[in-house]
Amino acid sequence: MNRNTKIILSVLAVGLTATATFLIIRKIRRKKLEAQLVGGVLDQTRINEIQSTPLSASNPPTTTEIQAIVSSQPVDFAIKTQEEGNAFRKWVNDNHSAYAKQIDLDPTGSYTNSYFEKAWKKYGAEYISSTQPQTLIAKVSAKVNEFVAENPKAGQVVNLLKVTSKIPFIPINIADSLINKALGRSEVQNNTGSFSAKNSATNLYNSMKGWGTNEKLFFDTLTPLTRSQRIDVRNYYDKNGVGKKLGTLELSVRGEFGGADLTRAIDLIEL
């Protein structure tokens, strides 16, 4: 293999790695948005109902649940063909003609451009709710069912927020503690004086799962450790499936944190 070929392959490899990393981080952030929006409209009673009788075309989601899914998902979760795209375009022109004219949305055309996406985010939920297309109801139902299966106690957070909002001057740390406990973001304790890469990796995962982040648990887990111990934690997290739903520790961190917290977190995971 000559030198130019090696250079070209190296550049391609870097590009593919960067693209894959971007897509994984975007997926993590999208899951967080989904958890925030969908979890925010499901109290525990509703979650229990869906667990007992999963949603389907014959047991459709509510308008609020449809809106949460449409807001949290990319357009292509629902619209995958030109025919489906044109059906939505026509509906917007028929029912919201002024808006269609305002954004220059024709009755037929691309279902992947920015005009279509803008219209879908604004009226996609209304379109699904009013026309009840079986395929789209089934897709939304599957998304809500999937969320409930992955977050069977998420409704407790909604209930807690309702309760704490009625209590004047409740300390933020107490409210956060209750929410973190409901989301399963509590600390796994080590034995006194001992270090466990497994427990520490589990704490990191717990700090980032569900919507929001338990920053205190994340930083309290890593800050007291030596550099060697942090590397052991990162390796355990990456190699033992602890972060299987969030990716490697680095990708998990980049999907969860921003600004100064991201810089601090990256320093602590010892890349």
Which tags fit this structure?
Annexin V, domain 1, single chain, mainly alpha, 2 domains, 271 residues, 68% helix
Descriptive report:
There is one protein chain. With 271 residues, the chain is an all-alpha fold. It has two domains: 44-150, no CATH class; 172-268, Annexin (Annexin V, domain 1), CATH 1.10.220.10. It is built from 14 helices and no strands. The chain has helices at residues 3-39, 44-52, 63-72, 82-95, 97-102, 114-131, 134-150, 155-164, 172-182, 197-208, 215-222, 227-239, 249-256, 259-268. Helix 1 runs antiparallel to helix 3 (63-72) and helix 4 crosses helix 6 (114-131). The radius of gyration is 22 Å and the shape is elongated. It starts with a helix and ends with a helix. 31% of the residues are buried.
Helix content: 55-70%
Mean pLDDT: 78
Largest sheet: none
Q: Spans with pLDDT under 50 lasting ≥5 residues?
A: 6-18, 20-25, 163-167, 169-175
Secondary structure tally, helices = 14
The dominant shape is: elongated
Terminal CA distance: 32 Å
Tell me the structural class. Answer: mainly alpha
Beta-strand level of the residues, as a percent range? under 5%
